[in-house]
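Entry:
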Amino acid sequence: MLAIRLSPELEERLGRLAAKTGRTKTFYAREAIEQHLQDLEDYYLAADSARNPGREYSAEEAKRELGL
Protein backbone atom coordinates (compact mmCIF):
# COMPACT_ATOMS: atom_id res chain seq x y z
CA MET A 1 0.00 0.00 0.00
CA LEU A 2 1.27 3.42 -0.92
CA ALA A 3 -0.26 6.78 -0.13
CA ILE A 4 0.89 9.89 -1.95
CA ARG A 5 -0.09 13.54 -1.75
CA LEU A 6 -0.77 15.38 -4.97
CA SER A 7 -1.01 19.09 -5.53
CA PRO A 8 -4.60 20.28 -5.91
CA GLU A 9 -3.92 21.03 -9.59
CA LEU A 10 -2.58 17.55 -10.29
CA GLU A 11 -5.44 15.97 -8.35
CA GLU A 12 -7.92 17.95 -10.46
CA ARG A 13 -6.25 16.96 -13.74
CA LEU A 14 -6.22 13.33 -12.70
CA GLY A 15 -9.87 13.52 -11.68
CA ARG A 16 -10.90 15.09 -14.98
CA LEU A 17 -9.05 12.44 -16.97
CA ALA A 18 -10.59 9.63 -14.92
CA ALA A 19 -14.10 11.06 -15.29
CA LYS A 20 -13.68 11.61 -19.02
CA THR A 21 -12.45 8.09 -19.70
CA GLY A 22 -14.37 6.08 -17.13
CA ARG A 23 -11.16 4.79 -15.56
CA THR A 24 -10.15 5.31 -11.95
CA LYS A 25 -7.59 7.78 -10.69
CA THR A 26 -5.76 4.77 -9.24
CA PHE A 27 -5.52 3.24 -12.71
CA TYR A 28 -3.84 6.34 -14.13
CA ALA A 29 -1.57 6.82 -11.11
CA ARG A 30 -0.41 3.20 -11.38
CA GLU A 31 0.13 3.52 -15.15
CA ALA A 32 2.15 6.71 -14.70
CA ILE A 33 4.33 5.18 -11.98
CA GLU A 34 4.92 1.99 -13.97
CA GLN A 35 5.89 3.92 -17.10
CA HIS A 36 8.17 6.30 -15.22
CA LEU A 37 9.86 3.44 -13.35
CA GLN A 38 10.47 1.64 -16.65
CA ASP A 39 12.00 4.81 -18.09
CA LEU A 40 14.23 5.27 -15.03
CA GLU A 41 15.33 1.62 -15.06
CA ASP A 42 16.20 1.89 -18.75
CA TYR A 43 18.12 5.11 -18.14
CA TYR A 44 20.16 3.73 -15.25
CA LEU A 45 20.85 0.49 -17.12
CA ALA A 46 22.12 2.48 -20.11
CA ALA A 47 24.18 4.79 -17.89
CA ASP A 48 25.72 1.81 -16.11
CA SER A 49 26.51 0.14 -19.43
CA ALA A 50 28.17 3.32 -20.66
CA ARG A 51 30.32 3.53 -17.52
CA ASN A 52 31.14 -0.19 -17.47
CA PRO A 53 31.16 -1.47 -21.03
CA GLY A 54 31.23 -5.21 -21.48
CA ARG A 55 32.66 -7.21 -24.32
CA GLU A 56 32.30 -5.68 -27.77
CA TYR A 57 31.11 -7.84 -30.64
CA SER A 58 31.60 -7.42 -34.36
CA ALA A 59 28.48 -7.67 -36.50
CA GLU A 60 29.47 -11.18 -37.54
CA GLU A 61 30.09 -12.28 -33.94
CA ALA A 62 26.74 -10.87 -32.86
CA LYS A 63 24.95 -12.69 -35.69
CA ARG A 64 26.71 -15.92 -34.77
CA GLU A 65 25.86 -15.51 -31.07
CA LEU A 66 22.21 -14.84 -31.91
CA GLY A 67 22.03 -17.68 -34.41
CA LEU A 68 21.27 -15.40 -37.33
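The two ends are 46 Å apart (CA to CA).
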